[in-house]
Amino acid sequence: MSTLVAEIAEKIQLLSADEKHTLMRMLLQDIDGPGEDADEAWRNEVVRRVKAIRNGEAAIRALKEWQE
């Protein structure tokens, strides 16, 4: 671990839980880049899965996996 990272880690320990949460969000956004947030991504995934169930695709896929 570099000296800079060690210094930052030490200073992070002085932050409140809310400040740590804010910092984590900032770091994750920096790493992941711009895009949809996790809540939106989960909503989209739920919609996709519900559509698959309604179209019968999920049931067919589950049946195929069960038969293998």
Describe this structure in words.
The chain folds into two domains: 1-35; 36-68, no CATH class. The model has no long low-confidence stretch (mean pLDDT 84). Helix content is 79%, strand content 0%. By secondary structure, the chain is an all-alpha fold. The protein has four helices and no strands. The longest helix is centred in the C-terminal third of the chain and has 17 residues, at 38-54. It holds the Pfam family Unstab_antitox. This is Addiction module protein.
Short characterization:
With 68 residues, this protein is an all-alpha fold.
**What order do the helices and strands follow?**
HHHH
Query: How much of the residues is beta strand, in percent?
Result: under 5%
The radius of gyration over CA amounts to: 21 Å
The overall pLDDT, averaged over residues, is: 84
- Helical run tally: 4
Q: What is the general shape?
A: elongated
Protein name: Addiction module protein
Pfam families: Unstab_antitox (PF09720)
Organism: Massilia consociata
What labels describe this entry?
79% helix, mainly alpha, 2 domains, 68 residues, elongated
Can you lay out the helices and strands and say which pair or pack?
Blueprint: H1 3-12, H2 17-32, H3 38-54, H4 57-67
